[in-house]
Amino acid sequence: MKSISGKNLCKIIKKYGWILSRIVGSHHIFEKEGSDVILSIPVHSNRDLPIGTLKSIMKDANLTEKDLL
Prior knowledge:
It contains two helices and three strands; from the N terminus they run H-E-E-E-H. The chain is globular and about 30 Å long. It has helices at 6-15, 51-60, and strands at residues 19-24, 27-31, 38-42. It is of the alpha+beta class.
């Protein structure tokens, strides 16, 4: 799996109905109507997210690798 930046991941999850709720420091907090899950995405310039962090966020958001393309 290729890693992507937090900034790019934010753009992708917005397409799937996630709404930016607030920004706390460098973390963007997203919520989705009808879901109890809250996503916290670290956005540090254009630095790529660690693979484990990316996989964890994708699992919480019910996304697959194909959704990242």
